[in-house]
Structures are given as C-alpha cells and as structure tokens.
Design a protein that fits this description.
Oligomer: single chain
Radius of gyration: 13 Å
Structural class: mainly alpha
Strand content: under 5%
Order of helices and strands: HHHH
Bound molecules: zinc ion
Length: 84
C-alpha cells in the first residue's frame, strides 16, 4: 500500500477484488473509495465487476489475464487525458 494516501489506478485494480469481497482493512477501503469518487474509469470498472459477479455468482478478477488489466489501464489513461 502507498503511504501517501493516494492510490493509483494500477493499485486500485490490484485491490478491487479484495474490496468487493470485503477483505480490505478499513483504511485501505477508505483510500479505495476516495479514488473511486475521483476516477470515472475505476468507478466504471467496479460497476462492471459487480455486474460480472451478479451474472457469474463469483468473482473472476483473479482469472483475468494481465494483458486485459493492462488494456483497461491504457483505456483509463486515455480517458483521463481527455477529461483533463
Ligand atoms: Zn482510477
């Protein structure tokens, strides 16, 4: 975990499965939620993840290949570059 209270998108993606499972510490949870409020890309990612869980009944993020996560992160960066 970063010590400065700022979570990057990459770190959020690493943590989000634990977040959805309720496995994070309170502090970690707060940091993640703070990021979600600031970051539309990660907010959308969480939304998508929750929908996946509804459909599949379980969390699949650990099975997502690294390339997919990288693509997502690239998409986030492009998106954020657009919006400032
Ligand atoms: Zn983000």
């Amino acid at each position: 975990m970063p010590g400065d209270g700022e979570l990057s998108c990459a770190e959020l993606v690493e943590l989000i499965s634990d977040y959805v499972e309720g496995a994070l510490t309170h502090d970690c949870n707060e940091q993640l939620e703070g990021h979600l409020r600031r970051c539309d890309g990660c907010d959308a990612y969480l939304d998508q993840l929750r929908r996946t869980i509804e459909v599949t009944g379980r969390l699949q993020t650990r099975d997502v290949p690294h390339e997919v996560a990288s693509e997502l992160l690239s998409a986030f960066r492009g998106w954020r570059a657009d919006t400032g």
